[in-house]
Please model this.
Amino acid sequence: MKYLLFLLLSTPLFAQQPFENEIRAFARQDSVSPPPASPIVFVGSSSIRFWSSLAQDFPGKPVLNRGFGGSELSDVIRYSDQIITKYKPRQIILYAGENDVAIGKKTGKQTYDRFVTLFKYVRFKLPDVSFVFIAIKPSPSRRQYAPEIDEANRLIEDFLKKEENARFVDIRPAMLGPNGQPIPALFRSDSLHMLPAGYERWTEALRTVVE
Model:
């Protein structure tokens, strides 16, 4: 909560915020095509944004994609009221943190701290909402950040084990081959973003979790 207030108060009132255009685009989408009532909000960075088959992967579920590429947990915190809480979702499914480490150069502990700030704020606004965190994936192009990413995943998983109606979904085993390395066929040529085959594995991992 304190971190959220810091973000809101430390930025000049009329300054252009990062990703402001993307957030405005979501508002325009809502005005043209109203979102479902009590949706399942998928939110986070580009791995959510590029999940174009979301509705097909979870048929009959009121899914709503609010991913914006390049975002860090700090950005999800900043816009949480516009992209999460305003929808009064039945469930939140978050993928974020990879960019905090790889782009923002945050440690695993700092990434975890950001996650806790977001989680506590959302729970303050929506006490009964189901919350799911998708483990930070093993991207081949970001192997050098593996120790910090592993630390973030470990801390977040341990935290969520102690929370009611919260889950950590570990998609990493499904993305690794027998050699323990990421399966290249799951990734685009940039070795970062996923191909449909990657999303198929995520869908399977989440199938029994999505409400």
Remarks:
- The domain at 2-8+38-206 is CATH 3.40.50.1110 (Rossmann fold).
